[in-house]
Amino acid sequence: xxxxxxxxxxxxxxxxxxxxxxxxxxxxxxxxxxxxxxxxxxxxxxxxxxxxxxxxxxxxxxxxxxxxxxxxxxxxxxxxxxxxxxxxxxxxxxxxxxxxxxxxxxxxxxxxxxxxxxxxxxxxxxxxxxxxxxxxxxxxxxxxxxxxxxxxxxxxxxxxxxxxxxxxxxxxxxxxxxxxxxxxxxxxxxxxxxxxxxxxxxxxxxxxxxxxxxxxxxxxxxxxxxxxxxxxxxxxxxxxxxxxxxxxxxxxxxxxxxxxxxxxxxxxxxxxxxxxxxxxxxxxxxxxxxxxxxxxxxxxxxxxxxxxxxxxxxxxxxxxxxxxxxxxxxxxxxxxxxxxxxxxxxxxxxxxxxxxxxxxxxxxxxxxxxxxxxxxx
Length: 377
What we know:
20 strands, alpha/beta, seven-stranded mixed sheet
């Protein structure tokens, strides 16, 4: 039987980034597809039939002719079978190496549109989206100097982005100790010689520069004010850029709020929910500073398309959309604790690694695989 050609996740990422025509066929079970997927992909629940060797597993699947096809499964094995069947039908087919596990590290970018009321300063913001995982990180640049927030991709990605734009990374910061992905902030600081900053905490055991409520990081014309927003984690912080754009980490999302339970007992989760309510009320008060204060979250629950459209919204819009923000303290706590989603897989191992700064053994893709589950919607 003729061998099936494959392509890497990075090669597929480059195709999508360039906007080149391609049809992606996802053959996983529907439950896995619902958990996370590649934006724009076509789905056929053919996994079991393909595994059983059913030659008609993909019958009835009509795809555009003359457009390359990429078959995708969980780990890149069943997609080889699908590619052979589609190839026999006359399609030009490749199989994604490593499947959706490998796709976990795929990324794209979008320039953030700063609000009209922001002071006329030389500041650029680029949203870096780990599309298969829902992680959102940011590069903030001013007069050639840059700062990276919540690095979740290999450090070479951010270093390459900075080089492409002529920026020099001076600062690297996290909003909190992450539980769903391995932080690459320490590695990025080591690669670039940047200063590593974290919200002041007693959790991590490696050197960093602490940030406290009200502290100010300034580079070029960018001014980043630290706002302590405990709740999702005890040390969680948000960062206000020049009084007009707010990096909220996992405290506030565009359609929900952060979960308070990871690495916490039930009583501690309730206490964190109370802290989260207070933190959110504080953030909402920022509407008095500017009605269009821009919310830039640390995660999204949906795969991010290669559309260069940033995931952002004015705080006033988010306030109307997220009904929990209008709840009383008691009602907020009760609702949060009743609606907590399943915990991210391997979160104990990931938290331990992020606290120790020691890279865990094995493939990080295997450790981090799966959709983001940091939000309570």
